[in-house]
Specification:
The chain is an alpha/beta fold and 273 residues long. Helices cover 48% and strands 10% of the residues. Helix 4 packs antiparallel against helix 11, helix 5 packs across helix 6 and helix 5 packs across helix 9. The two termini are 35 Å apart.
């Protein structure tokens, strides 16, 4: 997959957190040996285990439970057995929204021509503006993928005539009248300027709708409606998080590197604040 915009694609096999210190094991060690080590289990605060096929969960989850760990699973292969994950509940402000939008762009395919970086950049601007608006202006219960898909759908005007404005155009116009310096108003204005005209803006919105189509199912919308992972609190209690994505749809798999990126951002902020 071509990465058009900078975004972490890190999925380390094992992370162990002990007394606030994070140790990342990328390769060269027997992961199964590490997660069954008596000393590690007794003295560590949390484990994050990349387990694509679920074999480590099947063989060792109960061992963690016996040592007092809370078990969590980000199981994209079988959502029925997964903790829920809502990226919007796990980021800070504009930078977090930009990372989420970037992950969607890098992990999915839209309607733009291959290598049309400008069109893809316009998609990124739109997604970033919508995420910013949701994050700043809607109740926290609506910080989810469903809200974003609904906004994208409301940008499409079936019987378009020159001068028509979509419901989303109106929302940002009214917000701009009240708060002209609002970050989401600025971002949406950048998108509209980049698109050039309303028909092109709708084409970009339609491309974004295609990008999120794999998330627009009852199972995925429910899975991303709320958050059970609470990445910020992961190191504070004895927790073992298993991450499984072996049989997941390729688009859905983008949530794994995004989750790791958000986890490391939390640890960075905790360390330097």
């Amino acid at each position: 997959m071509n990465m058009l915009f900078e975004e972490s694609n890190l999925t380390p096999p094992l992370i162990i957190i002990r007394s606030g210190e994070v140790t990342v094991y990328n390769s060269g060690r027997d992961i199964e040996e590490l997660i069954t080590d008596y000393d590690a289990l007794k003295r560590s605060n949390a484990f994050v285990i990349y387990d694509p096929d679920g074999s480590l969960w099947n063989n060792h989850a109960m061992r963690f439970s016996r040592y007092g760990y809370i078990l969590k699973s980000l199981n994209l292969s079988n959502l029925e057995f997964s903790s829920r994950y809502n990226p919007m509940m796990n980021f800070y402000g504009e930078s977090g929204g930009y990372k989420f939008a970037t992950a969607l762009i890098n992990g999915t395919k839209g309607l733009g021509k291959p290598r049309d970086v400008n069109f893809t950049l316009h998609e990124l601007k739109l997604l970033n503006a919508l995420i910013s608006y949701i994050y700043c202006e809607v109740p926290q219960l609506e910080w989810n993928m469903e809200s974003r898909i609904e906004m994208l759908n409301h940008m499409i005007i079936e019987d378009y005539e020159d001068g028509f404005k979509s419901a989303i155009d109106v929302i940002f116009y009214e917000l701009g009248q009240k708060e002209p310096c609002h970050s989401s108003v600025r971002l949406y204005a950048e998108f509209k300027d980049a698109a050039g005209n309303d028909k092109q803006a709708m084409k970009i919105a339609a491309s974004c709708i295609k990008r999120v189509s794999s998330f627009n199912t009852p199972e995925m919308l429910s899975f991303m409606y709320r958050d059970d992972l609470w990445l910020e609190s992961l190191p504070k209690g004895k927790t073992a998080l298993f991450v499984q994505d072996g049989d997941a749809h390729e688009d859905i798999k983008l949530l794994v590197p995004l989750m790791y990126s958000q986890f490391f951002e939390f640890k960075h902020r905790t360390r330097f604040n």
